[in-house]
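re: ur msg from earlier - yeah i can do the nicotinamide-adenine-dinucleotide complex, just paste it... oh wait u already did. ok heres what im feeding in:
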Amino acid sequence: MHIAVIGAGYVGLTVGVCLAESGLSVSLIELDEDRVWVLERGELPFYESGLTDLYVRNFQAGHIGCTTSYSRGLDGVTAAFLAVGTPPLADGSADLSRARAAITEIAKYAPEHLVLVIKSTVPVGTAAEMRQLLDKAARGDIEVVSNPEFLRQGQAVEDFLHPDRVVIGADSGEAARLVKQLYQRFLDADVPVLVMDNASAEMAKYASNAFLAARVSYVNEIANICDHIGVSVDDVVKAMGADHRIGSQYLQPGCGYGGSCLAKDLQALMATARAGGYAATLLDAVAQTNEDQKRLLCRKIHQHFEGVLEGRTIAIWGLAFKEKTDDVRESPAIALIDYLIGQHAHVQVFDPVALSQVVDVLDDRITECSDEYQAVDDADALVVMTPWPEFRQPDWDRVKSLLRVPVVFDGRNLYDPAELVGMGFTYVGFGRPQVTRLPSGSLYGPHTQMVANK
Ligand SMILES: NC(=O)c1ccc[n+]([C@@H]2O[C@H](COP(=O)([O-])OP(=O)(O)OC[C@H]3O[C@@H](n4cnc5c(N)ncnc54)[C@H](O)[C@@H]3O)[C@@H](O)[C@H]2O)c1
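and the outut:
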């Protein structure tokens, strides 16, 4: 069977490559000519763990190809997956212009009886709107199915091939059956396939992402309370996560969530709620807590340097919003760099794969480094922003010998504070226990910065 995937981004490329691997013939339709050029050379335009090998194998075998042309890409296909971006508009609602533009082309070039599968995260009512657009273009033969994607960047291939569930929203049983069949080529038998109406499927995606964002903001709120009352959040989180009703995922205190999905989808859900006449105050607080959390790290650094960052050199490990991806969209590291540059600090950065993504934010106060040790060389502090595996167990003796002053701001609570303090570092994390009390009135409360006993 021949299918098309429209939009060769993190989602579209993963979907296309995995479906090609399952034996389908896949045409990627992508408007960005540079992206198509890279893909046609058998390379990927971005880093996603495990995707390159799969792509290269299927590309070389002729199972997947890429084009900018809708007429060529849709030729002879049975289904087309729509995976274009849906970034936020100024009011937080989802910008559907890319999806609408794609529908115009699909209406022109799709073969008869196409099943259009909406993979992009789109607000409730989008499938109905697409249906109307297609009807207006006299394409009543195209079925619209909502099939939101739940994969996580950094483990996209694993998540797509082994999902917790597949959600299919459809008005027609036949269209839903076709999409189910496509998944059943690789799905484990026990994975639930939940068929529902389009609006419920659309809402399920937003409700899930808003819930994950809420977990992160909730645990950060708990960490901040711990910071103020001198309790270790680590044991608190362990105790919470061991409860099966709660679980341990998305329960790691730190500098806030980033990425292209959680913040965007939360805003879009709030816009949907507003449009429906409901003030979603809990969601509002989740978003605000995350913004505050990003700023909290800046304030901790600001306070450590007594408000003067000019002339300081700050080392940053990690730019991507999470490990195993090069995606820097909404990354707390970018917010931190903006802050440090605004304070006239010099920044030395290392990320295993994401440096190439930030060329436009780099200026002469930022030095790109070739590894984590070059980044800390002659710096006044280290800030760890992305939990890459290689950052988890560095050679601390080497780090200490390279830093001007042994100070670590642990943006992801990766390290054992006692161990670092034992080695002579000043350690600042989120909700970590105290060794030495700071003067009262400090930002962290009386208890929460660990300072090496000197
Ligand atoms: N990134 C994630 O982890 C993730 C997870 C689940 C769902 N989603 C959702 O999936 C969608 C895509 O996300 P992404 O991260 O892959 O976005 P992306 O920006 O990485 O990729 C989108 C691609 O679509 C292309 N494009 C835009 N308009 C087009 C058009 N009219 N025709 C053909 N190509 C077009 C762009 O050039 C780009 O390459 C979004 O709605 C997002 O919310 C993302």
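cool cool. The longest strand covers residues 2-6. ping me if u need the other ligands too
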